[in-house]
Design a protein that fits this description.
- The chain has 299 residues and is of the alpha/beta class.
- 54% of the residues lie in helices and 13% in strands.
- The chain has 14 helices and nine strands.
- Strands 3-2-1-4-5-6 form a six-stranded parallel beta sheet, with helices on both faces. It has a three-stranded mixed beta sheet with strand order 7-8-9.
- Strand 2, helix 2 and strand 3 form a beta-alpha-beta unit.
- Helix 9 crosses helix 11 and helix 9 packs across helix 12.
- It is globular.
- The relative contact order is 0.09.
Amino acid sequence: MSNPAALPSIAWIGLGIMGSPMAENLLKAGYPVTGFTLEQDKLDRLAAAGGTAAGSIAEAVADADVIITMVPASPQVEAISYGENGILENAKSGALIIDMSSITPQTSIDLAKNAAAKGIRVIDAPVSGGEAGAIEAVLSIMVGGEQADFDAALPILEALGKVIVLCGPHGSGQTVKAANQLIVAVNIQACAEAVVFLEKSGVNLTAALDVLNGGLAGSTVLTRKKDNFLNRDFKPGFRIDLHHKDMGIVTDAARNVGAALPVGAVVAQLVASLRAQGDGGLDHSALLRAVERLSGAQI
């Protein structure tokens, strides 16, 4: 392996379900990673993996060549980026921010503009693939920003994901991510309806899902979520709360550009109703519970 000193130093802000394994994959690739997050146990986990735990955002980013952020939504991105204790006030000029959070395209555009005034470069690089994709370093990464910044970030992104594509200017990565979340939610909903239909019909569900997944109805969603459906295991890989946020992003962005999302709108409401019934902390495959309730099950 090349001399680690030659690799850029990385600050990682946000060590959640996705952020922790992703930061660990960078450590495995030889990058020096200094992290900050709100939970002490996550900082301990980073240190145990060979990283450095920082006491604040300012401390984490002070000497970093590259700053990677992975937080839940636009308000958190704004909270960590702006203000005297935020990234922009404390990062060095010439640093590159890679924001891997899933947020509104406009938040990404605004961040890039505000960072540029400080000589800091930004790309938006949201991901798809969930917790399993993060652990296995096979995420799809959709990027918005300048070609030169994308090229600079690419070796780092290659340690985190498999399909990495520059989709256009700032905010484009977020737009593609919003489309991704639309497709995933509708796909999970269709699978959930099929599961309830098959079970009520008395068919062997395992056999049915295997054969369906081998044909045109097959999908990455069905492959990844089949066991969740079969075992009613809704331990979160990707929480309903976050998918609810993402359906808000795609519905709003589509309205802004004049695109109709009739089926997406219905699924957005089903996600919202699951959340209202207290299932927000469950995996998004728990859309199955909503279909079961509609079909008469007492849950």
